[in-house]
TrEMBL record:
Keywords: Endonuclease, Hydrolase, Nuclease. Gene3D superfamilies: tt1808, chain A. This is Uma2 family endonuclease. CDD domains: DUF820-like. The keyword Membrane does not apply. The keyword Nuclease applies. It comes from the Bacteria.
């Protein structure tokens, strides 16, 4: 049976096809390639300060985070309803929850997602990703911006409902912030 092209759905409308194409790409080491609302968006390897902040946060999450949690560095987080696959700097998810996908963490299993803003990427972290993580009901979203115009800052977003975070606050580097449950500890940003 012959099918006319104008009767087919566009290739990018098929989430499985989109993710399969993403997996099949040969990405240079250190680079990230995210799917953001069906667009492939590359990000260059992080700078030294970016990596330092990720290391400090990783250590705190492993040592002080919730029992049974897995802390992932740069694991992909899938949000099919937003047609997006993000690769945040850190993801905390329940250890007992196994994904049928060996590559990605489903957003609904994530307890915390942390993005460290990097130059031109900070706008998408602040807008598209903020909205997408809230839409997926990720309980805690940390946006860490060492180059924010008002000075280095950690933004804590929590309590998602109706595709928005109901609680948001900014803490300048050097301050402390209480990470709400399910994370549940006080983070001192002085090491950032």
């Amino acid at each position: 049976m012959e099918t006319r092209c104008d009767q087919q759905a566009p290739l990018w409308a098929n989430w499985d096809y989109l993710v399969g194409a993403w997996r099949g790409l040969n990405i240079p080491e250190g680079w990230r390639l995210e799917l953001i609302e069906e667009r492939l968006v590359p990000a260059s390897p992080p700078e030294y300060r970016h990596r330092l902040i990720a290391d400090v946060l990783y250590r705190h999450l492993v040592e002080r985070g919730p029992g049974g949690a897995l802390v992932h560095r740069m694991a992909s987080v899938v949000i099919p309803s937003r047609r997006s696959l993000f690769i945040p700097d850190l993801v905390v998810a329940g250890g007992a929850q196994h994904s049928p996908d060996p590559v990605s963490v489903p957003a609904e299993t994530a307890w915390l997602v942390a993005e460290i803003a990097a130059g031109e990427q900070s706008a998408k972290d602040r807008e598209i990703k903020l909205w997408s993580y809230a839409h997926a009901r990720v309980p805690v979203y940390l946006l860490i911006d060492p180059r924010a115009p008002e000075g280095p800052v950690l933004e804590l977003h929590s309590d998602p409902a109706n595709a928005a975070y109901r609680d948001s606050r900014k803490v300048p580097f050097g301050g402390v912030v209480e990470l709400p449950e399910p994370i549940g500890f006080i983070l001192d940003t002085a090491e950032f």
